[in-house]
Amino acid sequence: MNPASVTPRRGFLGSVAVGTAGLVLSRWSTASAELPGSAGSALFADEWIGRIKGKYRQVFDCTTANDGWGAAFPLNFSASTKEAVNVSDGEITGVSVFRHFAMPLMLNDAAWAKYHVGEMLNIKDPKTNAPAVRNIFRDNIPLYPGLTFEQEMSTRGVIFVACNMALTVISSMAAPKAGVTADEAKKEWTASLLPGVNLAASGVYAVNRAQQAGCSYCYGG
Fold first, then answer.
1. pTM, two decimal places
2. Are 113 and 103 in contact (CB under 8 A)?
3. Which helix (H) or strand (E) is 58 found in, with range?
């Protein structure tokens, strides 16, 4: 596991300019104010909760890039459960919630390039040994070569959820270098989520709802 991709919050914030601290606090406040009043919000549709099926249900709480392992864990859970108890895919649901600094893994390559995501999160592209200007994880899932995030969601029944609070804060931090306003960055990041990714009001909300739906909890790094 590459330590550079598992950047502690303290170290990451310490690498940001002093003036950004106030921005982070203000955007967290704004993000809280933007939370929907009910689960019926069009932006934060909870339909993904209804797709949690079967006897064996697990939610993985991912807070860092962690070399992309947040996408591998649901697949490992499914494969090992089938091996252990000989059940069908319909009896197993894996959910990965990408919150905090794991959230940008849910963005497409264009967003990574424009907003210098690799530089922000200290993630290098192994092909260039420079800060990644593409999402190096979406087609490089550990232990599952050739499988993309989109395929994992569409063909393997895995549910990916992105945190809107993290999206709001981190896009705001990335906005100045991209030459856009915080609001413009947030809109573009929302539009840049990978197909199939569900946007939740917050990551902790998503983890809570998954547990209410019968998922056991597992920390995903």
1. 0.84
2. no
3. strand 56-62
**Distance, CA of 2 to CA of 64 (rounded, Å):** 12
**Over 60: is that where the pLDDT of 15 sits?**
no
Rounded to whole angstroms, the Cα distance separating 151 from 115 reads: 25
Amino acid identity, residue 97?
V
Residue 82 — left, alpha, or beta (φ > 0 → left; ψ -120 to 50 → alpha)? Answer: alpha
Q: How far is Cα 137 from Cα 145, in angstroms, rounded to an integer?
A: 11
* Residue bearing tokens 């056991």: 216
Q: Which domains does the chain have, with CATH numbers?
A: 21-219 (3.40.1260.10)
**For 173-200, what is each residue's pLDDT tens digit?**
999 999 999 999 999 999 999 999 999 9
Residues 6+ apart with CB under 8 A from 50: none
Least confident of 20-29, 71-80, 90-99, 109-118: 20-29
Neighbours of 189 (CB within 10 A): 29
Q: What is the pLDDT of the chain when averaged over all its residues?
A: 87
Grade residue 22 by pLDDT with cuts at 50, 70 and 90. Answer: very low
CA–CA dist 164, 178 (Å, integer): 20
d(CA 103, CA 137): 12
Contacts 24+ apart (CB under 8 A), 74-83: 74/152, 74/156, 74/158, 74/159, 75/141, 75/143, 75/144, 75/147, 75/152, 75/156, 75/158, 76/143, 77/218, 78/156, 78/157, 78/158, 81/56
